[in-house]
Design brief:
9 helices; four-stranded mixed beta sheet; alpha+beta; Arc Repressor Mutant, subunit A; single chain; Beta Polymerase, domain 2; three-stranded antiparallel beta sheet
Length: 201
């Protein structure tokens, strides 16, 4: 089912690729790295990246056998495009990066209205982001992440922590509800988004 995060991007795959390449203009990524981070098939990533390069949204260069891409901040629509990407597909790379080095995080998920829109469920734009962290991360660290993510994404970010035992047991009604509804894994085992073939174009 096509993503319902925004009607202004052609496909969910395009949104994921843009999020991985535009949020930090100082970073260069290989085609393979974009494919892996965005959770799209290599052929899909190649197609989307080629289109974006041809449109001058991204710049590319060769480094040996690797073809590297980065955001073109000189594009006249750069401010508008980057804002759109940050506020729609930005939560995954931003939160994934912030949570990656936090001690005690076994796995983490985006759930709630944002995850529902990403899964294609129609509705209004999400007014906040809900994050579930499984493990023993300190509340201070998670509060810092919530504040940093809110500042970057321009939306309230609510982080809920649960123990590994409670998540594995799945007897808590709240956790059972989270598990049964759309969610996007940010960190932990098998944390790459499911590969999308771009059929929602």
């Amino acid at each position: 089912m096509p993503s319902a995060l925004t009607p202004f991007l052609r496909s969910d795959a395009q949104g994921a690729v843009l999020a991985e390449t535009m949020l930090d203009p100082s970073v260069e990524l290989s085609f393979a790295a974009v494919s892996r981070r965005a959770g799209v098939l290599p052929a899909v990533a190649h197609r989307e990246l080629t289109r974006l390069i041809q449109a001058d949204v991204l710049r590319d260069r060769r480094d040996g056998n690797n073809r590297l891409v980065r955001a073109n901040t000189e594009h006249p629509l750069w401010p508008l495009m980057s804002q759109l990407v940050i506020e729609t597909y930005g939560p995954v790379p931003v939160l994934r990066s912030l949570l990656a080095d936090v001690s005690g995080v076994r796995e983490s998920y985006l759930y709630g209205s944002w995850a529902a829109r990403r899964a294609g469920q129609p509705g209004p734009p999400p007014k906040d982001l809900d994050v579930l962290v499984v493990g023993t991360a300190s509340r201070t660290d998670l509060l810092d992440i919530s504040e940093a993510a809110s500042a970057k994404l321009h939306v309230e970010v609510n982080v809920h922590r649960t123990s590994s035992e409670a998540w594995d047991a799945m007897t808590d009604p709240f956790l059972a509800t989270v598990a049964s509804r759309p969610k996007v894994q940010l960190t932990g085992a098998d944390s790459s988004p499911q590969e999308r073939e771009g059929a929602d174009e």
